[in-house]
Amino acid sequence: MSRVAKLAVTCEALDRGQVPIATAIYARAFDEPWPEAAIADLLKGAGCWGLIASVGGEPVGFTLCRSVLDEVEILTFAVDPERRRLGIGRTMLEEVIRISVKSADSLYLEVGTDNPAALGLYLAAGFKEIGRRKNYYRRADRSLVDALIMRRDLAIGGQQ
Ligand SMILES: CC(C)(COP(=O)(O)OP(=O)(O)OC[C@H]1O[C@@H](n2cnc3c(N)ncnc32)[C@H](O)[C@@H]1OP(=O)(O)O)[C@@H](O)C(=O)NCCC(=O)NCCS
């Protein structure tokens, strides 16, 4: 049995009271922190929803998404650096797909070309590159990185 199969990951709706937890995970996961108030405001916005992933009751990942008509966009997606490569991201993404397929035909996201972990996760989940934004992200070392725009078709019941 793989270590992924042994890890019980639960995903629940991210509520406003969990925004401080999401903010802390974000700060550990990315170079630049995202202010708690900005995450809270986003979550209050039209069509926005989120998930928090836990292992043994401990929050270890979260995502924020926005539903607009028949599309869902993943706005952010993060797993605690100490709990990576254990299937938490995959489980959370499967849950995003399971929820999105009820109302949407397409799932979109943007990801840096310098992010092999996220690219690996999204490609394995059936996302395809549909566009590129040149020099879209500025990294901590000031370098500029392209963003890939990726789409996952949900039209056939969420299957790839
Ligand atoms: C991207 C991220 C969410 C992946 O989360 P995770 O829980 O470690 O991913 P999983 O363990 O579920 O991995 C699922 C699959 O994704 C791919 N993957 C994950 N990490 C990878 C890595 N470091 N290199 C290559 N592929 C990777 C693999 O296909 C993996 O399957 P496998 O372990 O069976 O080979 C995590 O690395 C993260 O939070 N990164 C920082 C934040 C970020 O970049 N978010 C995405 C912004 S668009």
Please characterize this protein's 3D structure.
This is Ribosomal-protein-alanine N-acetyltransferase. InterPro entries: AcTrfase_RimI/Ard1, Acyl_CoA_acyltransferase, GNAT_dom, N-term/lysine_N-AcTrnsfr. Residues 9-155 form the N-acetyltransferase domain. Keywords: Acyltransferase, Transferase. GO terms for molecular function: N-acetyltransferase activity. There is one protein chain. Strand 3 and strand 4 form a beta hairpin. With 160 residues, the chain is an alpha+beta fold. A 7-stranded mixed β-sheet has the order 1-2-3-4-5-7-6, sandwiched between helices. The radius of gyration is 15 Å and the shape is globular. It has one domain (3-153): Aminopeptidase (3-Layer(aba) Sandwich). 29% of the residues lie in helices and 38% in strands. The protein starts with a helix and ends in a 7-residue tail after the last strand. It binds coenzyme A. Coenzyme A (COA) binds at residues 29-30, 77-79, 84-90, 111, 115-118, 120-121, 124.
